[in-house]
């Protein structure tokens, strides 16, 4: 099936959709643009009436607060304070907009810690399931007012990709200020053209394809494509399309070929591997020798201590770490069976030597293949 036929099929058969909208779409010179909020709610309500489960990941709280405060927002404490002012205004606007169509919206604020803890992840999953069973529309944002830097998602594109996994969505729609993904920066190259489809996003060089961030957001096209690459690994397609065009969602779901369609991978990873790779933050790294790199990437092997050249960082057992080759390229990420101190002691040694060195050998592998994701979009 070609990508256009697959796009048509997904748009007609999708049961659950995550829609992410950015600050550059929602806000104008006077702060939160209520006309945009109302138009978005109108379109989402129409899709909801068709029987789709809708989860909205919405930016805009900090930008909305900035305009109310008329203050310079620099640094994390100021952003958190602006979010505290803007979040209530953002949610009030959604509540009123959805209520016009007889829809109930529900606010969900998340930090990375909520998703990297397996028990809290499952609690969030059950909350989403209940809300969707009640036919409510969850509106998700990062809990900026309490998130410390190391627990932040970084941007709502990343959060959106994690929510796709959390709610097991069939499609990720990313509403942006651009018409889609361009083959060059349209602000600098008048000949740049919008790509209709990205068929193999894992082979796309994001650094050369993307450049620049929007003035009011934190992401830019790089973060949108990184999120799309993660979602593709789940077997879920992404549509990146302009949120500024009128009735864009109505047009998309009516079959109009606008935006950029990102084709998912043919062989998706497990949701568990997605969770361990992207809900945790790597605490260090291990550098492997060429033989181990080949065994990992071509033979699907676990990483043994004998294949490790060096260990960087300080971390405990069960920590997520980067797996790098000798040139410094990242091969993937995985959960270390040992803390960094013990891993350094057994680096380069055979598994049969572990008990003699450490006094015990709970695991023959440094990182088991079941706890590893190669070609991770990090």
From TrEMBL:
This is Glutamate 5-kinase. GO terms for cellular component: cytosol. HAMAP family: ProB. Catalyzes the transfer of a phosphate group to glutamate to form L-glutamate 5-phosphate. It comes from the Bacteria. The keyword Transferase applies. The keyword Zinc-finger does not apply. Pathway: Amino-acid biosynthesis; L-proline biosynthesis; L-glutamate 5-semialdehyde from L-glutamate: step 1/2. Substrate binds at residues 59, 144, 156. ATP binds at residues 20, 218-224. The gene is proB. Its main location: cytoplasm. Its EC number is 2.7.2.11. One of its GO terms (biological process) is L-proline biosynthetic process. It catalyses: L-glutamate + ATP = L-glutamyl 5-phosphate + ADP. Keywords: Amino-acid biosynthesis, ATP-binding, Cytoplasm, Kinase, Nucleotide-binding, Proline biosynthesis, Transferase. InterPro entries: AceGlu_kinase-like_sf (IPR036393), Asp/Glu/Uridylate_kinase (IPR001048), G5K_ProB (IPR041739), Glu/AcGlu_kinase (IPR001057), Glu_5kinase (IPR011529), Glu_5kinase/COase_Synthase (IPR005715), Glutamate_5-kinase_CS (IPR019797), PUA (IPR002478). It holds the Pfam family AA_kinase.
């Amino acid at each position: 099936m070609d990508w256009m036929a697959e796009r048509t099929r997904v748009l007609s058969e999708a049961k659950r959709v995550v829609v992410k909208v950015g600050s550059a779409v929602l806000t104008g010179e006077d702060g939160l643009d209520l006309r945009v909020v109302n138009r978005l709610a109108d379109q989402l309500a129409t899709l909801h009436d068709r029987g789709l489960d809708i989860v909205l990941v919405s930016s805009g709280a900090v930008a909305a607060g900035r305009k109310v405060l008329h203050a310079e927002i620099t640094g994390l404490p100021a952003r958190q304070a602006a979010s505290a002012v803007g979040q209530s205004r953002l949610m009030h606007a959604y509540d009123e907009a959805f209520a016009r169509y007889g829809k109930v919206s529900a606010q969900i604020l998340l930090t990375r810690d909520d998703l990297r803890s397996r028990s809290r992840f499952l609690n969030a999953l059950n909350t989403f399931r209940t809300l969707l069973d009640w036919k409510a529309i969850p509106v998700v944002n990062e809990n900026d007012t309490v998130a410390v830097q190391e627990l932040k998602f970084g941007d709502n594109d990343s959060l959106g990709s994690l929510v796709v996994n959390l709610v097991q969505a069939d499609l990720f729609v990313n509403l942006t200020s651009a018409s889609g993904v361009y083959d060059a920066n349209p602000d600098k190259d008048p000949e740049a053209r919008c790509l209709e489809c990205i068929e193999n996003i894992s082979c796309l060089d994001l650094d050369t394809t993307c450049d620049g961030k929007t003035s009011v957001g934190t992401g830019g096209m790089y973060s949108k494509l990184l999120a799309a690459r993660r979602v593709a690994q789940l077997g879920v397609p992404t549509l990146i399309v302009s949120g500024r065009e009128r009735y864009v969602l109505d047009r998309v779901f009516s079959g109009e070929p606008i935006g950029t369609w990102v084709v998912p991978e043919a062989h998706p990873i497990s949701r568990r591997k997605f969770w361990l790779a992207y809900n945790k933050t790597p605490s260090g790294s291990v550098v492997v020798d060429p033989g181990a790199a080949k065994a990992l990437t071509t033979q699907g092997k676990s990483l043994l201590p004998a294949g490790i050249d060096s260990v960087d960082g300080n971390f405990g057992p069960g920590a997520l770490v980067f797996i790098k080759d000798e040139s410094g390229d990242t091969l993937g990420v995985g959960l270390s069976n040992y803390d960094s101190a013990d891993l350094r002691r057994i680096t380069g040694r055979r598994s049969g030597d572990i008990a003699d060195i450490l006094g015990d050998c709970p695991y023959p592998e440094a990182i088991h293949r079941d706890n590893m994701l190669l070609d991770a979009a990090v």
